[in-house]
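pinging the channel bc i need a second pair of eyes. not urgent but kinda urgent?? the chain im working w is below, pasted from the shared doc
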Amino acid sequence: MLFSSITFLYLFLPFTILFYFFVPQKGRNFVLFVMSLLFYAWGEPVYVLLMLAQIVISYVLLWLVDRYRGKKAARIFYILSVFLPFAALFYFKYFYFFMDTVFGIQTKIIALPIGISFYTFQIVSYCVDVYYNRVERQKNLVTYAAYVTLFPQLVAGPIVRYSEIEHTLTKGIDFSAFHVKFKQGVVRFAVGLGKKVLIANVIGEFVAEVAALGTRNLELSWAYAIAVSLQIYFDFSGYSDMAIGLGGILGFSFPENFRYPFISRSVTEFWRRWHITLGAWFRDYVYIPMGGNRVHMTRWMLNILVVWLFTGLWHGAGWNFITWGLLFAVLLVIEKGVSRLFGGKNPSVNTANKEYVLKKDLTGVTINILKHIYVILVILVSFLIFHNESLLDTITDIQALFAQGSRIAQDVGSVDKAVYAYVMRNRIMILCIGLIGSTPLPLWIWTKLQERLRTFRIGEKIVCVLTGAMVLCVMVLCTAYLIDGSFNPFLYFRF
């Protein structure tokens, strides 16, 4: 079941909310657990059993860890609690690729359980945190199962750690400030739904149209690369916004997952803004335990390489994802290496010399612009790698950006020119909306408008009315699109 589906919006979600708040506090985790199972079983009825088995096994193993804490047996049970989820993930997600790549053996492709990468990481993080006494083991099996299966973030993130929602799961909703969280959750969900349906899906249609043409001109090649990156961003961040919004509606506070990554001026900054919870997970559970940056340069470079190899593989079993991860590993090593070499410090400036300061400011602006251009080019190339299952297709798409390769039509007739112009003209507006929407500008305008309106006597009421109207407008437009159209891809099937 998709968040961006009529069934979810007008059947599953209203019924779940009513049922959730109708029952007493003690029964709400059970409601969440049952409804989350129903949500998952809607598309994966068989693999519900796999998820339940992992929940029960990890619960029992951690009970044994607590029972034998301080003894050698506790470490054995802990290792099993981490190994078994990863073993299941490897079998379903990587076994075919491993056998084909390493041994050249073609095995039967196994259907991938949706969301297995997300809930595996949640189980593992919980097991590690319990073993190292960062969180107290949850003794109620239903409460633990509700954490793992929590439907808002089950299939598309963000990756939520037990410590981040423990209080709400165990103590219940704080109703003193719940109305604010609920209202913010509704708005956040509507924003995410709009990003997914009205921007990502429409841009996705453009991507499909250009891909179907086979050949393209230079302008269409660049528009295609931009569109691929924007579709991935708005699809993924839209789902994250919907998840965070749903969490707020149900009384939870989920971590942020995106912070305008396209405004970054370095690859390092980009990955502090893109899929934040995944980066934080690898940092805390892989990078730092391996020594992080507190080791020799060679070991540090190896740590970066391992982390980003795993990051690439987490997204999918394919050479494109491995290449994608290693590309970022190389760029991060270069950036961080340069920063280490120069200590990340700027030379002192004589502020008394105004002419010098002005020249330095202008130079700084120029450098920042060049940094931003560099990051944008990296993003475009990297997401072409991410998007294409074949590395050959990626190479031809990159060649097309320089008017080279088989993607570029050599003999462009009047009909082809007309087709290219029509496709470009028909979608240029949504690309512009996407580019503007990927920056903080819309939020800045909305914030300033609210501040201005609140200076009036009835300003707060006006803001509430405008907010409600915006949510209603988004819901109406999205509903119309979902009823009328059939293009509603789920980009996270491989996760």
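so Residues 6-172 form one domain. and The chain is about 70% helix and 0% strand. — does that match what u expected or am i reading it wrong
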